[in-house]
Amino acid sequence: MPDAPDWVRDALHAGMVIPAHPLALSADGAYDERRQRALTRYYAAAGAGGVAVGVHTTQFAIRAPEHDLLEPVLRTACQTLDEVERNDGPRLVRIAGVCGPTTQAVREAELATAFGYHAGLLSLAALSTVDEDALIEHCRAVAGVIPLFGFYLQTAISGRPLGESFWSRFAEIDNVVAIKIAPFDRYKTLDVVRGVAQAGRAGEIALYTGNDDHIVADLLTPFQTRLGGGAVTQQTVTQQIVGGLLGHWAVWTRKAVELFDHVQALRTGAEPITSDAFALDAQVTDCNAALFDAAHGFAGCVPGINHVLHGQGLLASARCLDPRERLSPGQAERIARVRRDYPHLTDDDFVAEHLDAWLS
């Protein structure tokens, strides 16, 4: 199986901010490569440690024949990151979304590998009816092409329930480098953590939060799993969610990086944990409720992200590939309210200062 470079594994285990990269479209719905590049430059300049491209926030519809945008979008991100590195910028971990039935997923993994992506974020939404054995066989087939970044996608946006047994078997695949835990469910989050521990891969697989509704608490919580049958042989394995791969972090990314640095300081004891940390968790969740449109079952999650980026000038338009996919009633007002209530979580000044350079 292909393996990720050592520096990629080390970076993932150290923890980082990984925005789920949106798609840039013009007002008439055409692919806007100039602003797609600007977004990638923004994430690099903001201090993100990686980007995830071709994922839910990029819109799964980029794969539809009438759009056929997966290859251009993957290429644009890699070319832009190459340019950033040539100009003495940071080296980012490159993660490509991989989805669909096995034949499609393998083909997408091959495309990502050809462009130089380091791992594939593997969505299993297309395999909603197959049994666990077939799921694991599918994962192994994709792992034969690219290192895997597992993905527990919430059921509200086409995810399927995946229990502890699945995650234990998934974690046994040698080149699983990380898992994005995003069921938006505390019980299911524990299933992933316990599955990795049961597989004996604690400390080998980097755990990332995708629970945009519980970001700070996920990053601060030590997860302890008891292994072994008897009192004498039993041992406690402690795991930490070390970073986040989040659609929420596709906006206000500079402040997300500052928040992440603050949380790391809390986690290591460099700063004391006080009630302010839990207040911050609630504030971030409140922002996410507006951005992701929790009031309408997350129907407006991608439009909400695009709305903010458009308002900052990073996107020429907030539209999605499906013109029917728009902000829900009242969502713009809720986003305006959290921007007003939590200015310390927004980065409008940072974007305004650098926007012209990113668009050049």
From TrEMBL:
Gene3D superfamilies: Aldolase class I. The keyword tRNA processing does not apply. InterPro entries: Aldolase_TIM, DapA-like. Keywords: Lyase. The keyword Oxidoreductase does not apply. Signal peptide: none annotated. PANTHER family: BLL4205 PROTEIN, DIHYDRODIPICOLINATE SYNTHASE. This is Dihydrodipicolinate synthase family protein. It comes from Alienimonas chondri.
